[in-house]
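Subgroup meeting minutes
Present: P.N., E.W., G.H.
Scribe: E.W.

1. P.N. recapped why we're keeping a running log of single-chain structure predictions: easier to compare across weeks, and new members can see raw inputs and outputs side by side.
2. G.H. added today's entry (390 aa).
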Amino acid sequence: QWATIRIQKGVKKPQPQMLKTPTANGIIERDETPMEKEIARLHRVDFEFSDIFYFCRKGFEAIVEDEVTQRFSSEELVSWNLLTRTNVNFHYISLRLTVVWVIGVIVRYCFLLPLRFTLAAIGITSMIVGTTMVGQLPNGSVKNYLSEVVHLTCSRILVRALSGTIRYHNKENKPQKGGICVANHTSPIDAIILTNDGCYAMVGQVHGGLMGVIQRATVKACPHVWFERSEIKDRHLVTKRLREHVMDKSKLPILIFPEGTCINNTSVMMFKKGSFEIGGTIYPVAIKYDPQFGDAFWNSSKYNIVSYLLRIMTSWAIVCNVWYMPPMVRKEGEDAVQFANRVKSAIARQGGLTELPWDGGLKRAKVKDTFKEEQQKNYSKMLVQNGSIG
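Output recorded in log:
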């Protein structure tokens, strides 16, 4: 269609255009002008070979300063905190610094690690035994009360096992029963950080091993929502079970991490819309860790859970802030995606995090071909429209 229009109209000599100087907003000068506007600024009619330079420049920008994949690696620190994980190149800068680092290694591995491991073992054992015993009681207020006591007590022991120092803000906005608590996701310990201050009904896939033992024990005392591997792929079944839980105002609020994967402590990425299709009141929570005392981010594509927990338990401490935000409900005429984006923006602003539109699934998968094709279609439509207008 473009070629036909070009032949009918004839070739016109393009007029030189002045390029707008972009504003520096990173390690490179990146211009965030949309494709349609920038190419239209270069010429007002048809395809020109100069359009190629626009796409080349965008490609170079993405390579030099990729705003997506850098969110899946540990956060860069202004100064080294004497942990091996943060910068291995700093260990031997000077003799004095090396001596201090060695002393820190001895303290963390020979004193803190055994103590923390002991506390973690006590907390996990208490969780399994306590919830199993409470699960034998008949359903009622007594069982619910004892279940909350067991969950809170064991969670607080586990937080002590991490030398956790947590500051909770705006407690008047804490999630209420029958609601849905959504938070940004940095680490598997996010759930422990939140249950240290209140009880929640967890949502997730059934696991084996020690995690499976904990799941089977806790579900007897508390209405957690665990799915089999085959069920978790059935979106309608998941939505149905979660909606039934939310409709019962006597049940604990559901805790969901809509990003679906761990993102480093700098950003919030796309929220999956499923959590916002259930209905009910959404209680946003922002979690922000202080990396100077320990990096809580879990790079699951690089470290398994055992290696990660070892790194966490040999850090100096886990220090973070948690902000409970005012409840949010879906507005009239607002779809699930718009609602999810509005909640994500609120969490990003409160936690001082960068808001990104990308799917966290890019942590393990390549960009879908449909995304590339969408850009190609937009460019094609723009050429046809410009040609037809001319």
